[in-house]
Amino acid sequence: MGLLGVIFPEEYGGAGLAIWNTRPFVEELSRVDGAVGLTVAAHNSLCSNHIYKFGNDEQKRKYLVPLAQGKKTWRMVADRAGSRL
Hints:
By secondary structure, this protein is an all-alpha fold. The protein has helices spanning 23-32, 34-54, 57-68. The protein has 3 helices and no strands.
């Protein structure tokens, strides 16, 4: 559907939308399954946006482009004992 990189410029595989433009589709996804909405929101903000804001051009091309195109995904895990993530 192309929702995993909408906030990034086209040169990095995104659609060039502002972050607040993600709200309507995240809300709609969350109506069906909250976990899916949260996953899309986190992918765009917690993961990819940090690479976009703080990565150098080489890192953006290597990591951000496939993330924005939905070819790669990211994972977040907790490192403490007993974590279920």
